[in-house]
Amino acid sequence: NAGVTQTPKFRVLKTGQSMTLLCAQDMNHEYMYWYRQDPGMGLRLIHYSVGEGTTAKGEVPDGYNVSRLKKQNFLLGLESAAPSQTSVYFCASNMATRDTGELFFGEGSRLTVL
Amino acid sequence: GNSVTQMEGPVTLSEEAFLTINCTYTATGYPSLFWYVQYPGEGLQLLLKATKADDKGSNKGFEATYRKETTSFHLEKGSVQVSDSAVYFCALSGGNKLVFGAGTILRVKS
């Protein structure tokens, strides 16, 4: 019973490099989210998707892009990484926040930008 | 816009002590309220929730009551255990997404 799976779990980048974080869920959830977690700031929403082929900006979208080509996958891309993007990234999914608000989270991806 | 404010931590308690973590919110309309818990090295998981005023959410000995008049949703537990050591997040639902507080670190000593 995988739930929400994130890859990779750890990555070190140099400033200016690009990378993609992959989130996969096997619960047939419509909604998917990318958050970043920084000390003292809780979780901040980067981008989210309310269904296949849709994406929307969250609270801190600058420097990130996303795609939801398949319902089960939600990709987060960094085109030109900056040290300010050093963080722990969490993917989450659910059926609908209006009904339950219960998000299912992955285990996180720790990214360090040098 | 919607926001959540939690008491700053870390909170350090001895085993079997009483726990309160304060949470207040600002929101338009009538959001649902949640407490999430994050154990070391893991993602967040839902601890409890309340969907309307005066509802009490409870789970694993933790409780929180949705107080509309004070816009609060404080987390309480009568007797904490070492295994409760974690980061606790208060959150509210708004539109298609949740808004989280900054989190409160709880450390329980044996």
Order of helices and strands of chain A: EEEEEEEEEEE
Mean pLDDT of chain A: 92
User: What are the secondary-structure elements of chain B, in order, as H or E?
Assistant: EEEEEEEEEEEE
How many angstroms separate the termini of chain B? 41 Å
Proportion of residues in extended strands of chain B: over 45%
Question: For the terminal residues of chain A, how far apart are their CA atoms?
Answer: 36 Å
Helix content of chain B: under 10%
Strand content of chain A: over 45%
Using DSSP, what is the number of strands of chain A? 11
Count of discrete alpha- or pi-helical segments spanning 4 or more residues of chain B = 0
Largest interface: A-B, 26 and 22 residues
Uncertain spans of chain B, ≥5 residues at pLDDT below 50? none
Rg from Cα of chain A: 13 Å
* Portion in helices of chain A: under 10%
SSE-based structural type of chain A: mainly beta
Q: From the alpha-carbon coordinates, what is the Rg of chain B to the nearest angstrom?
A: 13 Å
Summarize the main sheet of chain B: 6 strands, mixed
Q: In total, how many beta strands of chain B? A: 12
The main sheet of chain A comes to: 7 strands, mixed
Query: On the 0-100 scale, what is the average pLDDT of chain B?
Result: 93
